[in-house]
Specification:
The chain has six helices and seven strands. By secondary structure, it is α/β, with parallel strands linked by helices. A hairpin with a 5-residue loop joins β3 and β4.
Length: 281
């Protein structure tokens, strides 16, 4: 009886484990929702297997139902997409790694937003895949070789060709130049201090009384100049008035300049005066 109970417990435990495994796979594949099929053909799909997720813009929309190797060397993958989701017509499928244990997933990436959707059972175009471990290691190896080449060139230029000695000589010359410039700056500072002191002594030597007298004389000279300017302006205005009157023919000067008869009378008077003077002589 005891032996029989142990066998029953073992069978129940085995059934529980199997139910847990198959239930997990069943839930991963969508549970009761089978979804509609879409297909893709990949040139490489290491680590891609049944039950792995299908992502649309990072959201799980289905799972991988089957992945088979085609005789031409490509992998034909059947995806099951949930009935709740539609895939835009401009979407590409890419195998991408998930996690750090080599698991893969299929990423569906729309190239642009669209309200038109891929028909059920259609085949998606394949996008550029993410670089694998081998490609990353190859790139790291290439970068390492480049760094080694640069280090070798540095060693040749700085060690074998005396570049370090040149740098030391340059630094020594630079330090010497800085010291010389510091000495020149100090000398200029002393000379500037002496000049400022001499200027202060010259300013203090000026008599404030004489300076006030000079300023007063300058003020009087300025006032006299202003008065002279005003008088010259008034004289100029009078001359302009006389010239304007002479030009228009008004006044004595204007009449003399503008009246021909008066000019002839003046000429006759002068002629008679000359005759009278001759007779008197």
């Amino acid at each position: 009886m005891k032996r029989r109970d142990e066998v029953l417990v073992g069978l129940l435990l085995l059934v529980s484990i199997l139910v847990g495994i198959f239930g997990t796979i069943w839930l991963v594949r969508g549970g009761l929702e089978s979804g509609y099929p879409l297909y893709a053909r990949f040139p490489w799909g290491a680590g891609l297997g049944t039950g792995q997720p299908v992502l649309l813009a990072g959201v799980t929309v289905g799972y991988v139902a089957e992945a088979q190797l085609d005789p031409n060397g490509t992998i034909v993958v059947e995806m099951r997409i949930s009935e709740d989701y539609n895939i835009p017509v401009n979407t590409t499928a890419t195998v991408v790694p998930v996690g750090i244990f080599g698991d893969q997933a299929i990423a569906l990436t729309p190239l642009r937003a669209s309200t038109q959707y891929i028909a059920r059972g259609d085949t998606l175009p394949v996008g550029a895949g993410a670089p694998g471990t081998a490609e990353l290691l190859a790139r790291v190896d290439t970068i390492g070789r480049s760094v080694a080449d640069v280090a070798a060139k540095f060693q040749v230029e700085l060690v074998e060709n005396g570049g370090i000695e040149d740098l030391r000589s340059t630094l020594a010359a630079t330090n010497q130049l800085v010291m010389q410039l510091s000495g020149i700056a100090a000398q200029q500072s002393r000379e500037l201090s002496l000049t400022m002191a001499s200027l202060r002594r010259s300013v203090s030597a000026i008599d404030s009384t004489e300076l006030d007298s000079i300023v007063g004389n300058l003020k009087r000279t300025t006032a006299n100049s202003e008065q002279l300017t005003a008088e010259l302006t008034a004289t100029s205005q009078r001359l302009n008035s006389l010239l304007a009157a002479a030009d228009t023919g008004t006044g004595t000067v204007g009449l003399l300049l503008r009246d021909p008869a008066l000019y002839q009378d003046m000429r006759g008077l002068i002629a008679r005066l000359d005759s009278l003077t001759a007779d008197v002589q």
